[in-house]
Amino acid sequence: MNILLLRPHPGHDKFGLGPFFCVEPLGLEYIAAALLQDHHQVTIADLRFRPGLATVLRRSRPRLVGISCLHTLEFEQVLATAREVRRLAPEVFIIVGGHAAAAFSGPLENNVVDAVMVEDGESLMPLLAGCLERGEPLDQVPGLRLRRPDGWQSTPRLEERPALDLVPLPARDLVRQYRNGYHCLLFKPVWLIETARGCPHRCSFCSVWQLYDRTCRERSIAAVVEDFATSGDAVFVADDLFWYNPARSLELAAALKKRGVYKRWILVQTRTDLICRSAAIMAAWRPLAKDFDIFLGLEAASDNGLSGLDKDSGIKESIEAVRIARELKYGINGNFLVDPDWDEEGFRQLWGFVEQYGLQRAGFTILTPLPGTDYYRTVAHRTAGQPWSNFDMHHLLWEPRLGPERFFELYAETWRRSILNTAGDKGIMDWVRQVRPSQIPYIIRVLWRTQRMMKPAEYMKEYRASCPAGTGGAP
Ligand code: B12
């Protein structure tokens, strides 16, 4: 069967990581690999690049179209893509899947979509394709929300989550034509690699552990080594919690070293308390790349702030993790959450912490209730009427304690204190010196776009646009 897998344009990437991160649709590549094993013809189209949807549909003539929906903020754009597929190819079966779709399928249960997958795709997409091909009923395919004449229905859940090694390697060949467009700030092209999936912790703002019931699955050492060895020299590791399993982490580092893997750059994501007990593991990993960055969930500048987020880790761990990582010559990127409920002191405390520990490479996102979390369930009523595109962690979904003008003045000031402020400590020429001459136009463009995060007026424009008429500016 001809199958087309689509990565839509997120639609809303003005703020946050959007402008300076663009990575390959790894979930679709794993699904494609599984479908290829079953001898289907598979095309992956990344609609952030050319050609557009009409051309892709004409060329691939699919019977089944899968659309990925990684982030809540993409819901409207995913539906718009489904609508366009339906208009151009009325007969195709359209399924949506991916993290945000699985965590909270409701907004996608729309007439232009035939099904939403609420589990991982590697084992289930081949089952679905097989059933469609043979004209068999789809209610035997687990893990679906299915559109029926009398409404949306669930098929049974999977009894057990499949092992990741079911599909050992992603079908990276299918995105070959887009490779040079994938980038993470200074690095271009970039490869996305997954070694494990899930997280056992319980941070209140995160939808990952709630979807996977605090489980963590690992790929085999052999598969991961092969993936690293055959990927390029700048690697973003997608794992929710890197270095989670100490014995496996050490074994993996040794196996990569033995295979001669050495990268220009690696970026991983992990927790502060894990770093505090993993110095030996980190020492084993550090020689595997020239530059090695850690995206650290710093989240708050006080113990109170951290416990309010169910972080189960304290400020002592944050400070110690930064010290250990720096001693081993890791770069620290991280993220802090800014609460709409803060008063001025909340911002000042954050600035003081950032200054004291030199954390200007961190990012700052607005605490946002993401669908699929308990936090969302408790405050959903406050977000009523907000477009999903505003769930990008840079929009206010309700009136903040300080009022929107003052809140955004302080929020923009927080970003101005980061290294992304080209009028700050790291000027545009310092960035330019770090890239190859051919990449200068790219880095200037990305930094130019990023400067809007330092301008309160840019946020206020968005805030006013999502206020219902007649509310005087309150969403
Ligand atoms: C890589 C990544 C990114 C990349 C983008 C990736 C891309 N292709 O465009 C970057 C770095 C740009 C990014 C940005 C952001 N991200 Co992000 N990101 C991730 C991350 C770490 C990994 C995703 C991944 O590739 N996993 C590996 C693959 C193999 O797994 P998978 O995608 O889940 O795919 C499987 C299934 O989902 C399913 N599936 C996937 N697609 C499809 C399609 C079909 C048709 C079917 C049937 C099944 C299916 O099958 C696949 C195989 O099993 C996830 C964490 C996570 N666990 O999902 C966060 C995550 C998705 N991001 C998140 C967030 C919050 C953001 C930001 C808002 C953060 C910020 N500070 O700005 C921004 C938004 C950017 C924007 N404006 O667009 C949240 C989303 C929460 C939510 N509910 O919205 C997550 C879950 C992280 C978290 N712990 O909270 N992100």
Automatic annotation (TrEMBL):
Keyword rRNA-binding: no
InterPro entries registered for this protein in UniProt: BchE-like, Cobalamin-bd, Cobalamin-bd_sf, Elp3/MiaA/NifB-like_rSAM, Methyltransferase_Class_B, rSAM, rSAM_horseshoe, rSAM_sf
GO terms, molecular function: 4 iron, 4 sulfur cluster binding; catalytic activity; cobalamin binding; metal ion binding
Superkingdom of the source species: Bacteria
Record carries keyword Zinc: no
Keywords: Iron, Iron-sulfur, Metal-binding, Methyltransferase, S-adenosyl-L-methionine, Transferase
Organism: Trichlorobacter lovleyi (strain ATCC BAA-1151 / DSM 17278 / SZ)
Any one cellular-component term (Gene Ontology): cytosol
Protein name: Cobalamin B12-binding domain protein
Radical SAM core domain location: 185-417
Reported cofactor(s): [4Fe-4S] cluster
Location of the B12-binding domain: 11-139
